[in-house]
Amino acid sequence: MKFIIRVVGILMLTLVYASVAYTQDTLRLTMNEADQIFLKNNLELLAGQLNVSAQKAAEVQAKLYPNPVISGELNAWDPQNQKWLHAGATGQKVLSAEQLIVMGGKRRNEIELARKNTTVASLELEDLLRSLTQQLHTSLYSVYFDNRTLHKFDAQLQLLDTIIAGYEVQAAKGNIAAREVVRLKSVYLNLNNDKTSLLRDLIAEQEKLKQLLRTNATVVLRFDADSLTSFSRLPGRDSLIEAALANRPDRKIAGMSADIAALNIKYQKSLAVPDLTLGGAYDQAGGAFANQINLTLSMGLPLWHRNQGNIRMARVQADKATVLQDISKNAVTAEVASAYDNMQRSLTEYQQSQHMYNSDFREVLNGITDNFLKRNISIVEFVDFFESYNESIAALNRIRKQLALCAEEVNYATAARIYP
User: What average pLDDT score do residues 50-76 get?
Assistant: First the structure.
């Protein structure tokens, strides 16, 4: 009874995945086609692009010059002539205009800071694209190779189902022991459990793909496993590190942050320079002369507030940015070295598997199955080889998938298309 309940549960999960895979539209895409849809539809990239646009708007804002200020003064009550609003030819009024003259290079420094922040926003978008592209490719490869394993499991389960049905008939007639049927069902259940675990992974990866591509369709990668031979080359570790240090957007951001920190020191120093307010004023009757025209100048005196605290903080931030730049270099170097080691190990494993696995595996399985059905070999021998064969198939696809994922890791670590 427990066996039946567990099998029913597994079949339910299988039906869930089947409904996902077959009741919806299916997108069969090459890697390049998936990349194009991703660039067009991904919402995170859209948000990053909007952030760049916002920074460009800030750059425009930094270029704007302060507006002039116009003011006027009109007589409200003339006690001498007993008149309200006496501002005509015999009355009094004052008109003035002022323009703030930004001194010390503040505006120039603000514009340069805005430009560098726009560059940082563009680099952050590039880094986001690099990260999301790796997620996309990882999920596509995972779905492709896990589906290959799943199809093999389905074929094996169908074979076992046929054998078990025949053995149940023979057991009912008393021709074979019931324990042999139970043993075969146990093998079936174990294989189905492996399939269930694989289905969970596939459903999770499909969910990631739907979010990345903004689609409700099931995504299938059009890929030839034989093309993995193009992943067999591995550039030297030093050349990969050199490429990463030159290409990585996060590395460039670290360098740009150091530049911004140095520029911020200049900007904070320029803020200590007082601005000049230049203006002109017309006074009809309130000055020393009638219809007097005056020139006005004003400037703050930097006696106590010379922006000392902000200048000191900017210097500390510049030192910090230099340290973070060194940390970034070390982190990139370590990440590339790790990706290189993983790729080298995966290549070795893949090359060994190519020599070990061939069509003989399937032919031997067919022979073992035929001899088992003819009662030429025992159930122990059949089960032992059957389980070994399934483990080999799963391991082979795992090795192939791992090679593709390690290649993507190298691409991600170097921010370059080392592998197609």
Answer: 95
Model confidence over 345-402: pLDDT tens digits?
Answer: 999 999 988 877 766 677 888 888 898 888 888 899 999 999 999 999 899 999 999 9
Question: pLDDT value at position 91?
Answer: 87
pLDDT greater than 50 at residue 4: no
Going by their DSSP bridges, the two strands 26-29 and 218-221 should be labelled as parallel
Do residue 382 and residue 325 come from a single domain? Answer: yes
Q: Is the pLDDT of residue 9 over 60?
A: no
Which pLDDT tens digit goes with each residue over 141-175?
999 999 999 999 999 999 999 999 999 998 999 88
Structural domain total, the chain: 2
Question: What does the alpha-carbon distance between residue 253 and residue 123 come to, in Å, rounded to a whole number?
Answer: 6
Name the residue type at position 107.
Answer: R
Q: Does residue 252 share a domain with residue 136?
A: yes
Q: Are residues 27 and 169 in the same domain?
A: yes
* Distance separating alpha carbons of residues 18 and 15, to the nearest angstrom: 5
**196 and 95 fall within a common domain:** no
Which residue segment(s) compose the domain that 300 sits in? Answer: 66-101+274-304
Contacts of 64 (CB under 8 A, 6+ apart): none
Is residue 193 domain-shared with residue 205, that is, in the same domain? yes
- 91-113 burial, b if ≥16 CB within 10 A, otherwise e? ebbbebebebeeebebbebbbbb
The answer as to whether 419 is a domain residue is no
**Upper half-sphere CA count for residue 142 (Cβ side, 13 Å):** 21
Look up the pTM and report it: 0.86
Residue 337 included in any domain: yes
